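Because discrete structure vocabularies remain unfamiliar, we turn briefly to a single example record, giving the amino acid sequence and backbone structure tokens:
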Amino acid sequence: MSTSTLTNTVASTLSRFPMPAMWTKGSVQQRTLMMGVALAVLSNVLFGVLYAYSSFLAPLSGTQVFIWRMLAMWAALIGYLLISGRLGLHMDKLKALGSVKQWAWLLLPTPIFLSQFWLFMWAPVNGQGVQTAMGYFLFPLMMVVFGCVLFGEKLSRLQWWAVAFAAVGVGSEIVRTQSVSWATLWVCGTYPVYYILRRLQGIGAVTGLLVDLTIFAPFALAYLFFITPSSLSLVSGSGFFIAMLVGLGVMSVLAMKTNVDASQMLPMNVYGMMSYLEPALLFILAITVLGNPFESAMIYSYGLIWIGIACLIGHGVRQLRSAHKQSQTTKTAPVV
């Protein structure tokens, strides 16, 4: 869906409901921006809730919750695409892949995707919540580095400062602990590869998600039937677990859908800045709700990383102001 079509759709949707004045005044572009911000906040809050979800599903292990989440998410996604009538659209995209090489190229990022979702459900209940959240903090910084190295993107002074602060922060943490968490490295080191591969493939987020989940579904079922049949018995015999897993699947798809919609409605800089809300929520939940350890000595190294993030946000704000000034200049320029 193009940006202009999405904007018109949002405008027509908002006009059908009684909305506060702040949502109805202003141009269509302004209202679309506000809706995009609201969707971005909603998606990040949902991801935060999902992060703590494993702790409510004891005695299921983090791996078992991951397996059930993938199946519930697959069912919810198929249901959504069928109800919305968009399943055929995504199937047509996949049918256009005619060769084994194209399919192999398409499936290359799938293991990264699955490992990230497993870590997301496993880490909070296994003492790696803070470290995983830090990986998500570092993820945007690594995307900047990958963009510079692979795509020749030029870094501004603030972006260079961001990378420098993050590097010193990670280095100080390595010196302090004489190691670095594998969970942090896995998130910030492999997740950018997934997004870059999908970008190079030209595959949309929903299509890629459909492929990843469909490929994994048979393995997930085999795991439940042959490796952990006790988990299958526990869930099938409990209305509470069934309801919780249905909610897990619906929230997972809703989180992904609102995140994708927000990315289409918002300027890239605004969307990038909004994405920092998720790791902040994960970090807070890991320390408070999940009780993961946080040592006072970590403040120095993590503080440097957060300063780096502040530099990235500052870079985004500067770009937004520049773009706003250019648009105002274009509007007021005389027609000759």
Observations:
- Residues 298-332 form the longest helix (35 residues).
- DSSP finds 16 helices and no strands in the chain.
- Residues 13-19 have pLDDT under 50 and may be disordered.
